Fold this sequence. Notes:
The structure holds 2 protein chains of 2 kinds.
Chain A: H1 7-11, H2 28-37, E1 43-48, H3 52-57, E2 68-70, H4 77-93, E3 104-111, H5 112-117, H6 120-129, E4 134-139, E5 165-166, E6 169-170, H7 179-185, E7 190-194, H8 201-213, E8 218-223, H9 227-231, H10 237-246, E9 253-256, E10 260-263, H11 274-277, H12 292-315
Parallel strand pairs in A: 1-2, 1-3, 3-4, 4-8, 7-8
Antiparallel strand pairs in A: 5-6, 7-9, 9-10
Chain B: E1 11-13, H1 15-25, E2 30-33, H2 40-51, E3 58-61, H3 65-78, E4 82-86, H4 88-103, E5 109-114, H5 128-132, E6 139-142, H6 146-161, E7 169-174, E8 183-185, H7 190-197, E9 214-215, H8 224-253, E10 260-263, E11 270-273, H9 278-291, E12 296-301, E13 303-305, H10 309-315, E14 321-326, H11 336-347, E15 353-358, H12 368-384, E16 392-394, E17 403-404
Parallel strand pairs in B: 2-3, 2-4, 4-5, 5-7, 6-7, 11-12, 11-14, 14-15, 15-16
Antiparallel strand pairs in B: 1-8, 6-13, 10-12, 16-17
Iron/sulfur cluster (SF4) binds next to helix 3 and helix 9 of chain A.
Amino acid sequence: MKKIGSLKEFACTPDRFQGGHRLCPGCAHSMIVREVVNATDDDLVISTATGCLEVCSAIYPYTSWDVSWIHVGFENAAATISGAEAMYKALSRKNKLYNEDRRVKFVAFGGDGGTYDIGFQSLSGAAERGHDFLYVCLDNENYANTGGQRSSATPLGAHTSTTPRGRVSYGKKQKKKDLTMIMAAHGCPYVATAIPSTKHWKDLATKAAKAISTVGPTFINALSPCTTEWKFKPEETTEIADLAVETCAFPLYEIEDGHKLKITYRPKVKLPIEDYLSRQGRFSHLFKPENKWIIEEWQKQVDEYWDYLQRREEAGV
Amino acid sequence: MALKYELKQKEVWDGNMAAAHALRQAQVDVVAAYPITPSTPIVQNYAQFLADGYVDGEFVMVESEHSAMSACVGAAAAGGRVATATSSQGYALMVEVLYQASGMRLPIVMTVVNRALASPLNIHGDHSDLYLGRDAGWIHLIANNPQEAYDMTLCAFKIGEDERVRLPVTTNQDGFLVSHTAQVVKPLDDDTAYKFIGEYKPKYPMLDTKNPVTYGAQTEEEWHFEHKANQHKALMDSPAVIKEVFDEFEKVSGRKYNLVETYKLDDADVALVLMGSAYETAMLAVDKAREEGIKVGLLMPRVFRPFPYNEVAQKLKNVKAIAALDRSMPMGTTGALYNEVAGALAANGQSAIMTNYIYGLGGRDTTVEHILEVIRETEKNAKAGKRVTDLQGFINLRGPKLSFN
Ligand SMILES: Cc1ncc(C[n+]2csc(CCOP(=O)(O)OP(=O)(O)O)c2C)c(N)n1
Ligand code: SF4
Ligand SMILES: [Mg+2]
């Protein structure tokens, strides 16, 4: 496992995901990806699902990827990486590896659409088969690439282009699917949540390093604040991510061997959920008097979940 | 090292066993597959070879055909020999990824056991799946019996992996009629088969991580067309390599294959064009018809894509009337084989009278007698010098007579 030292050291790692890509200014995807790919000194083979990251980072004849990289489709990043990983195993068994002196690790990136929704079956299958890879979900809680439609990661009350607020609608009616726990329930040896953040940069880098060096299927659900669809200023990305953690809307934790849960950051003072919601245009309608109950419901769900996490950690289950 | 399999000079194999042995002998690095009738036994046989130590590659039993083809793409781009098997609904589920495999020029081999597409659900043989994948950018080889299923699968690796081709290849055999019909097959021994196919020659392998590559990039209006044109050119140029491989295969096996196969066509006035197991039924019908004095012959594109249109036209140069038999419902037009042959003739200034027959859907029996009837009808056209029969007829269809003109 790569030792994650100081930020200065980490920031000086040669970039394997390079600038010049066409993600929006302030897009969190690139921050997360840079941290993940730099969290190992091993060579990488990466697959990426269709979505913002993919369409913005490999526009022929250019590429941002200084590692082996493949994009096949929207719903099959996990299946694709599982094939590449199987080839690595086969060639090592047959003594036919291309570079005997190098160790290769396998990472897949998918958006929440490509992970929670259309790619869920492929991810579940690859995890069950026990391939040795890390899957990172870049969870911006909507189909950003296609204009901000809902996904099953979109939280309650959020305005999206397919759950628009309107005279008789308050946005999305359902709550967010708990994918991290679902992946833990697969018995993955390591799953974690993470955010792009200046304050918590090491939390993400360490988790990525740990996940990549763990043998077997590992999963990181990284909240990826989307300036364009969440409607906040591009320079506020990490601040919004930090607020998600400080309000416990998106708690930072990890689970080993499918059950050993550890909260990796505990806010000193849990901020009210309004502090997170009010900073994003996608929730602005919730502050109308008739929607007050949704904010109350949000707070209730956040409190219950935070309580649940703490009890599980305490109980060691 | 995988164990060698001691094979007899003559084995009794069905098409599925024949295809599975070809995959084993190719020493495929990654097989990723999902079961579906009637190709299930291919993956089961392969799993047994693995369990008994005859295979040392990876066998990835995925959770769907979509993932099977996706894993094949990932594995092939990683840099090694890759294969899978499927039929029908599984094929349909793969279609998105079939285009991605060929667009990335990955020489995956897929042994297809052809079956009808639902609805209504039907597990038996027809060519609906083959026709669905027609434009997916794969080379499609046709096998009419277990021996050919074996031979075509060995050839498929050598064709697809050739530096000058680098395209995925399917081998096609009719569900049940070939896949589950045991016949005598003369296999090559393991060493000869592997030597014929040769070592996998990597091109831009992702696993050569010292030389990173990007696969599956985005191209919009400024590059997409050029990429697709290049890919099409590779397909259009591939017959030269296919012929070479068939010639080499003849040297090791004594069995000769051609882009276009014919039967008693040289002096024929009447020709039937068809592919698959019915071709062998048609051979018997031709023999009978010739006893009746009808000069009839057969033609089959061994290679359905790239379609050998000039060879087809050349072979049909002297016939007066042609019936093209399609084993798939064209749903709103004439059959694909009819259209291909008509196009081939038109491109070469030929004007034989053409008709189309739809037959064998969902495993419907097509007998020598049925084909004999088609031959007699086609001869009427030849004699009249113009089409006097229906443009599109249906063989062995129950209910009131159906035809289109
Ligand atoms: C099979 C298929 N269905 C739909 C699409 C259209 N599509 C492309 S990206 C995308 C949404 C991506 O959302 P997400 O996975 O959350 O990634 P993001 O762009 O938000 O990072 C959709 C719907 C597609 N490419 N393929
Ligand atoms: S739309 Fe959102 S996720 Fe997509 S590039 Fe822009 S900020 Fe990033
Ligand atoms: Mg998204």
